[in-house]
Amino acid sequence: MNKSDRRKEGWQYILANLKDRRAIFPPAFTDEMVPRADIEKILEAANWAPTHKLTQPWRFVVMRGESRKALATSLLAYYDQHTPSGQKLEKKRKKILANPLKASAIIAICLHVDQQNAIPEWEELAATACAVQNLWLAASALGIGGYWSSPAAASDLGAFLNLKDNERCLGLFYLGFYHPSKSEPNRSPWQEKVKWME
Fold first, then answer.
1. Crossing angle of helices 67-82 and 90-102, rounded to 10°
2. Backbone Cα Rg of the chain
3. Are 113 and 167 in contact (CB under 8 A)?
4. Of 48, 114, 121, 190, which alpha carbon lies 20 to 30 A from 184's?
């Protein structure tokens, strides 16, 4: 296979993986546990995200086993504390408790900001989002479903996750094997979002 063929094959594989990626929600997960080795592969992929001046601001906390229950309890406590009595929904409370236990693992997506560097925070947020995209694509390539949840409670998880003062949680990434669906890719044409300047 020559270089041109390899490039074409690589491009086709990458585009297919991009199109296959989906948000797979916890109710669709099976009981099969995602092996730690697969989670480590996913995290390695995340670590190769682009980053200005190699600050590598992403941080991850992986929760499996009993820690998922502790997370569910923490999320529910936040909901109960910040939701007016008349607006609390039992259905919502049950969902908050159930989702972490349906996932094989939950990865807290965290941002580490170094006050000594001059990189704008938005760039560090963008780099962390790129790391999550890598993570998501790697999970998809391994046949593992994923979903990036950004509940209001995420900003309150610092103590639970044992984060440093210059770190904060941006959301939770739920992982699990799932039963494939027949959903088709759904995007408007890229040409509608591009202007060319010659």
1. 160
2. 19
3. yes
4. 48
Distance CA 95, CA 71 (A): 13
DSSP calls for 160-187: TTT--TTEEEEEEEEEE-B----PPP--
Place of tokens 């086993």: 65
Domain locations along the chain = 25-179
Superfamily of domain 25-179: NADH Oxidase (3.40.109.10)
Residue type, 104: S
> Going residue by residue through the chain (198 aa), what tens digit of pLDDT does each one get?
676 777 878 889 899 999 999 999 999 999 999 999 999 999 999 999 999 999 999 999 999 999 999 999 999 999 999 999 889 999 999 999 999 999 999 999 999 998 887 899 999 999 999 999 999 999 999 999 999 999 999 999 999 999 999 999 999 999 999 988 767 778 999 999 999 999
For 71, 82, 155, 169, the CA distances from 159, given in Å and listed in that order, are: 12, 17, 10, 10
As given in the structure block, the two tokens for residue 154 are 């995420």
Prediction pTM value: 0.93
